[in-house]
Amino acid sequence: MISTTIRGRYEDGVREAITTVTIHGGAVKYNGNVTEATVVNGSSSEGLSFSLEKPGSFLIDYDDVRFQFMNSVRVMEKPLNFTYTHWRGDNRTVVDGTLAIDSANKLSANYGVDSGNCKLGYSYVHKGLTTFEPSYDFGKNSWDVAVSQRVYEDNVVKTSYQSSSRVLGLEWSKNPSSSGGFKICASVNLAEDSRLPTLSVDSRLHVEL
């Protein structure tokens, strides 16, 4: 089966169009991304990328030269999911782990093998509608917090604050469905005198052939 996703993005006056073609070869997916830079003013390799993925197992991105491996173990009968990611270009390695305590509570950790930085997070879902996500970054010695509210079944409104950068964000998104979805984001840097908001719009159309 072949599926195509057309993504349009607008941020700070910059428009971008990305087309992703996915070929499902059994358990493995082949992804090819093409941007308008590939075809405008003659064909080129700019904006052209490929990846090979087996969901829940591994991903190889030939554009970023990124290798990602996923695994899952059980700790005290609780699922612990690991993701190991290595970027060959800048020789950087990150390990992510998520422990699902129950359907409403999750603990997460992000560790940079090269930098030694660690970020811990906690997620709590209240009645399946409201999600609280506080986190602490040891490298920046700062707290971040996000609160999400599900509305109209498949729409989510999210507000967030990053204490290290003093960026306040607001996001409205429609969860991807069989046909597509969208995301509208606005953010304000409270550390700047002007405090002008930054706006971005991301929409996707999904078609299966």
TrEMBL record:
<dbReference type="GO" id="GO:0034765">
    <property type="term" value="P:regulation of monoatomic ion transmembrane transport"/>
</dbReference>
<dbReference type="InterPro" id="IPR034626">
    <property type="entry name" value="OEP24"/>
</dbReference>
<dbReference type="GO" id="GO:0022843">
    <property type="term" value="F:voltage-gated monoatomic cation channel activity"/>
</dbReference>
<protein>
    <submittedName>
        <fullName>Uncharacterized protein</fullName>
    </submittedName>
</protein>
